[in-house]
Design brief:
single chain, alpha+beta, two-stranded antiparallel ribbon, 6 strands, globular
Length: about 100
């Protein structure tokens, strides 16, 4: 999976080490905290920018499209994508473009 993460790009070109660590953290341990930390990361800047959350939705259209917000403005996630879904989302939305 590290290979796919290496190809992630954001508005500043290639994702830096901190971004890669956050992506790897949610892959290794998908939970509300790691997902909340990683869902908004831009993983592909080509064409229409794609966040990790958008990439997951492209794999699983039934995944939640909105998060509820608590009184402290913290997202409440009703579900968290699995490691496999996250890996497939990154592969489809990042590697597919770079390998063509």
């Amino acid at each position: 999976m590290e290979t796919a993460i290496e190809f992630c790009t954001n508005m500043f070109d290639h994702a830096g080490p901190d971004i890669k660590e956050r992506l790897q953290a949610v892959i290794d341990n998908p939970n509300p905290n790691t997902w909340d930390d990683a869902h908004g990361i831009i993983i592909n800047k080509t064409g229409r920018m794609t966040t990790l959350w958008q990439a997951v939705l492209s794999i699983d259209p039934s995944f939640q499209r909105r998060a509820k917000i608590d009184t402290n403005y913290k997202a409440i996630w009703e579900s968290i994508p699995s490691s496999e879904t996250i890996k497939l989302a990154i592969k489809k939305n990042v590697l597919t473009y770079h390998l063509n």
